[in-house]
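Thread: quick sanity check before group meeting

JM: Hey all, I'm pulling together slides for Thursday and realized we never actually wrote out the predicted structure for the chain we discussed last week. Dropping the sequence here so it's in one place. If anyone has concerns about the input, flag it before I start.
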Amino acid sequence: MRRRPILYPFGVLVSEASRELCHALMHLCGGDLARVIDGPSTSLDAFARHIARIGPLRSGAEKPLVVLTRCHPLEIEVVRARHELEEALPSLVDAAWVVFVDPELDPGFVDAAHKMGTWTGRFAEAPIWTAANGSRYLIISPQTDTICLGEERIIDLERRGGRVTGPRPRDLREKDPVSAPPVSAPPQSGRVRRRASSPDAITEPPPAKQAGRKDGSE
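JM (edit): ok, ran it. Output follows.
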């Protein structure tokens, strides 16, 4: 399977350890660490305009992993942010959406997620969270057990995905943070090769190869 571009609309994580961990988890999910777009992160509108200049993303020929690195308030930074990006670039409806959560920095996430939607599995098992409007997200964190990740998990995320038909995100109401289990030390991950920051970094997918020949792409 061809590896996917990785988009960070809010930019990459500030902590180097968390940043490298997130990259490593996305690589396990089929992300291409040579095609990371993490800016401009000044606004969602600026980010959408930038990636709209990239032909394969605009046309939907590439289905990226979209990683949201902010999740508080949940309805604004996740649900509404996705809605705005999909409105600006409709091809992102077919993207795989991921939320990176650090419970140590956002102890109220688990409680808020349960109040505003449902999810399958335990927190450490990379659960799929379904918001009230039907949008689905893969939840990863420093506690995620890597054995639960892989391209199959992304396929499972997308299996019931598609355009959201529920109500538009509403304004956030008051949320009370709750405590969360302590975060275990993140595993060491490989070094990122290079990141894509310009439209030239993502090209059209190569033409399909003849039957019987082995595809050499990652």
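AS: nice. Strands lie at 4-7, 31-37, 65-68, 96-100, 117-120, 128-131, 136-140. The longest strand covers residues 31-37.
JM: adding both to the slides.
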